[in-house]
Specification:
heterodimer, A: alpha+beta, Flavocytochrome C3, Chain A, domain 1, FAD/NAD(P)-binding domain, five-stranded antiparallel sheet, 17 helices, about 35% helix, about 15% strand, B: about 260 residues, alpha+beta, Ubiquitin-like (UB roll), Fumarate Reductase Iron-sulfur Protein, Chain B, domain 2, five-stranded mixed sheet, 12 helices, 5 strands, binds flavin-adenine dinucleotide, binds iron/sulfur cluster, binds FE2/S2 (inorganic) cluster
Chain lengths: ~550, ~260
């Protein structure tokens, strides 16, 4: 669906202001950045995290009293999918050294390192191996790789500032010091980074970076990384991947160690007991919970299952009171609603504009500030661009990029988006895109230390399922980095834990029973069931007619 | 935030779903599509994926990223009155009246196992792992079947000529959906072969980044440790002022830019 005549008319306004904006950029002129005070003010007023409604205090579990969005509270205060009494734990179907829950970036990196340490590894994943948020990352991966102008010192400051100075210092230290090593590892595995002919990596800015340290692979950085490490995992004899088999509960043993998980075969509907000497939770994020009803960029399986399993077993969480909204999700055409338009467009020079074709925010503010500014422009100042579906959007002026960096740049740097929009009759080398903030990243999650250990021995966690690294707000490019840095650490440490702890205690689901009791005592018990596993997009009218089917949570 | 909250459909269980199909429901007129031969009436503005959900299907397979990049939702379809088979991604392709469609969520293509660290940049290594490469009869069906416009036949012929670089470049947008393999006369697993070519290119043909090695070395020697520890122990106020004092690399600066302050490099 190409732009309607009304929108085409509005694009003319954008074209009118464009030459001057380009000239200003070429002179190095920039829209002023906000001071920290201005940032605080706009966040308080316009960012969804600061709205008093739509959130409540948790009634149960290790973070009882902690106020989180309703959608998180709903799944924490929910029953297990299984009755523990019905599960026969005496005869595990799989017995392995390391069990990894989740086949995204963190899980796969962990598997490779655990294998290198000599462990037998099983990855249990909900969809196909690689169907994950990692696959979708477009913009890039941060690392201070150019020591003549950058260093872990600046990377550390940027991470902290982006996270409102709330990040856990030890975790950030690990993140920034391991970054160049991760890139080198990827390069060796054959990831096709954007480079100069002599092999020097090209780098650009991302929101909140003081130095250009965003490394990329076209506009499909995550896919290139994911498919490469997945390919490598497929080469390893000691890594077994089971697909369409999500975990639904962790298993503990009589010593209080984590000793595996209960899996559910989505196709045959069987539950499967897996015993493991060490277990890694790498089940990713939660965009598909649609916090506050926002559209999302996340993959189909991002339903916070890892949070639920970990929390139920007693792992505390942090930073779930904040959720990241990406400032630029597509709002037009309707078929691509929610789709991420990478920050790289802004990094490469595209302006954000209101209906009058005017800038209202610097394009390199942190994501939360950028999103709040877009929301203010549309809701308070009423200067958003109306879409045919009745929403409001902001222009992202992609044609500026070709003007700034030469004809063909958009096509070359953003092949994926160029093809996609062309299919809908929009030429993003000549026409701007319409965008609006979209639910993007779970800032918080399970607490870990810098060795990826949780408070339960034998249970490690890595990736988007964890919290603390990014504080209250993650900067672009630090999450791909995080999943690889901590995924590798988790893999290595899980393998060594498995080597040192060979005692086999009796398996138990008592923690699930205890949690269930607590729900009842606190009056939080409800018909809700978690982990959610898959979102439910069944049409309500159809659902009404599914007379003999029985729903357990979102699955029938 | 009323505008956004309107989309929140609280169902009987208090969940805020189904946002996706809601944006769909009720917009546009209903048209017939045939899912594996059976007719369903669906709104004309939907993608195949949302239309199937609208009709009552619940995906386990055939749905991953919902954003055109994971390759889980390969779909083959034909329009009424035509013999031509078309392909598309269910999450990206909009339904059309009287479309006959089926998803191909999995294709059992052969994949060779190799020790990547031992491979060189010699094309013979690829030939040894995938001898079926030479079964290609240049029918071009793979290229025609590709939803990402990958010129797969050209990728294969580049490899036959030993040009790994060209094969890597040409196949970069491949999302490994498997449609090319499903159409191949020679039974080639093109996307696995192309993956191997890209890895060889990325690892063994393009020069490695020397500055990465220098960065790793400096960090391992502990060059930055003292400064980092200082930041880690700093109170929030002091950290804030350091943050605000950061010297910013100008957006349009060239590759040779260096900061004035080199104290913490
Ligand atoms: C559209 C998009 C663009 C992004 N762009 C960038 C970017 O440019 N730079 C950047 O740094 N970051 C980016 N991010 C963020 C980043 O990609 C993710 O945060 C990160 O990849 C998460 O990795 P992960 O391994 O923790 O989780 P995922 O990659 O999501 O993997 C989680 C895996 O766990 C599986 N799983 C879920 N539940 C279960 C269960 N119950 N049992 C078993 N398996 C389960 C899932 O199916 C999936 O395979 C982006 C994210 C999105 C969505
Ligand atoms: S080249 Fe083959 S596997 Fe890759 S996207 Fe095209 S059809 Fe799919
Ligand atoms: S479909 Fe198979 S035989 Fe035909 S051109 Fe492609 S690789 Fe060759
Ligand atoms: S669901 Fe991933 S490409 Fe369609």
């Amino acid at each position: 669906m190409s732009y309607t005549p009304e929108l085409q008319e509005l694009i003319k306004t954008v074209e009118k202001t464009r030459p001057e904006r380009i000239a200003r950029k070429q002179r190095g002129g920039e829209f002023p950045m906000m001071s920290l005070e201005e940032r605080d003010a706009i966040l308080k007023k316009h960012h969804p995290d600061y709205q008093p409604t739509g959130r409540r205090a948790l009634k149960v579990g290790p973070n009882k009293g902690y106020i989180v969005p309703d959608e998180f509270a709903d799944i924490f205060e929910a029953r297990s999918r299984v009755d523990p009494d019905m599960v026969d734990l005496s005869n595990p179907s799989i017995d392995t050294d390391v069990l990894i829950i989740g086949g995204g970036g963190a899980g796969t990196a962990a598997a490779l390192l655990a294998d290198e340490e000599g462990a037998q590894v099983v990855i249990a994943t909900k969809l196909r191996h690689g169907d994950a948020n990692t696959m979708m990352a477009e913009g890039g991966i941060q690392a201070a790789s150019k020591m003549e102008k950058d260093s872990p010192y600046y990377h550390y400051l940027d991470v902290m500032g982006g996270g409102h100075f709330k990040c856990v210092p030890e975790l950030v230290h690990t993140l920034v010091t391991q970054a160049p090593d991760v890139l080198q590892w990827l390069e060796k595995l054959g990831v096709m980074f954007d480079k100069y002919p002599d092999g020097r990596l090209s780098t650009i800015h991302g929101g909140g970076t003081s130095r250009k340290r965003m490394h990329s692979c076209g506009d499909i950085t995550g896919a290139e990384i994911m498919r490469t490490i997945r390919d490598e995992a497929r080469n390893r004899e000691n890594i077994t991947v089971v697909e369409f088999v999500p975990a639904v509960e962790l298993l503990l043993d009589e010593y209080g160690h984590c000793a595996g998980a209960l899996l559910y075969n989505l196709e045959t509907e069987e539950y499967i007991v897996v015993r493991a000497k060490a277990t890694i939770l790498a089940a990713g994020g939660s965009g598909r919970l649609h916090i506050r009803g926002f559209m999302t960029t996340n993959h189909y399986g991002a339903t916070a299952d890892g949070l639920v399993m970990g929390y139920r077993a007693g792992i505390s969480v942090s930073f779930l009171h904040t959720v990241q909204y990406h400032p630029t999700g597509a709002v037009f055409p309707e078929q691509v609603e929610g789709l991420l338009i990478t920050e790289k467009f802004r990094g490469a020079g595209a302006n954000l504009l209101n209906i009058d074709g005017e800038q209202f925010v610097n394009e390199r503010e942190p994501r939360d500030v950028e999103s709040a500014a877009c929301i203010r422009e549309c809701l308070e100042r009423k200067l958003g661009v109306p879409t045919p579906a009745g929403r409001r959007g902001i222009w992202l002026d992609s044609p500026m990029i070709d003007a700034l960096s030469g004809e063909g740049t958009v096509e070359k740097e953003f092949p994926g988006k160029s093809i996609l929009f062309r299919r809908h009759g929009i030429d993003i080398t000549k026409e701007p895109m319409l965008v609006y903030p979209t639910l993007h990243y779970q800032n918080g999650g399970l607490n870990i230390d810098s060795d990826c250990r949780t408070s339960i021995p034998g249970l490690l966690a890595a990736g988007e399922v964890t919290g603390g690294i990014h504080g209250e707000n993650r900067l672009m490019g630090n999450s791909l980095l995080d999943v690889l840095v901590f995924g590798r650490i988790a893999g290595r440490n899980a393998a060594s834990f498995a080597r040192d702890n060979t005692a086999k205690g009796e398996l138990t689901l008592d923690h699930v029973r205890a949690f269930q009791r607590e729900l009842e005592v606190e009056g939080a018990a409800d018909s809700r069931v978690a982990p959610v596993l898959l979102p439910d997009y069944t049409d309500p009218e159809v659902r009404k007619k599914q007379l003999t089917s029985h729903y357990l949570g979102t699955l029938r | 935030m009323s505008e956004i909250k309107d989309k929140q459909g609280r169902s009987d269980e208090g969940r805020s779903l189904p946002v996706e199909s809601q944006s769909a429901t009720g917009t546009g007129k209903l048209i017939p599509v045939y899912v594996m031969g059976k007719q369903y009436m669906v709104p004309e503005t939907l993608t195949i994926m949302k239309a199937m959900e609208y009709a009552g299907f619940k995906f386990i397979r055939g749905c991953g990223c919902r954003g055109g990049i994971c390759g889980a939702c390969a779909t083959v379809y034909r329009k009424e009155g035509e013999y031509k088979l078309r392909v598309g991604l269910a999450c990206q392709t909009v339904v059309e009246p009287n479309m006959y469609l089926t998803q191909i969520p999995f294709f059992p293509a052969n994949r060779a196992r190799y020790d990547f660290s031992k491979l060189t940049s010699a094309p013979e290594e690829i030939y040894k792992l995938y001898p079926e490469l030479f079964r290609c009869i240049a029918c071009n069906l793979c290229t025609k079947a590709c939803p990402m416009d990958v010129q797969m036949m050209d990728v294969i012929s580049a490899l036959k000529q030993g040009d790994i670089t060209r094969a890597a470049m040409l196949s970069f947008s491949c999302i490994q959906c498997g449609l090319c393999a499903s159409r191949c006369m020679g039974e080639l697993p093109q996307y696995h072969i192309a993956q191997l070519a890209r890895r060889i290119y990325g690892s063994n043909i393009v020069p490695r980044a020397e500055h990465l090695g220098q960065a790793v070395k400096a960090i391992n020697e502990g060059r930055h440790e003292e400064w980092l520890r200082m930041l880690m122990e700093m109170g929030e106020e002091a950290l804030r002022s350091r943050y605000q004092e950061r010297e910013m690399e100008p957006p349009m600066a060239g590759e040779d830019w260096v900061p004035v302050n080199a104290e913490y490099l």
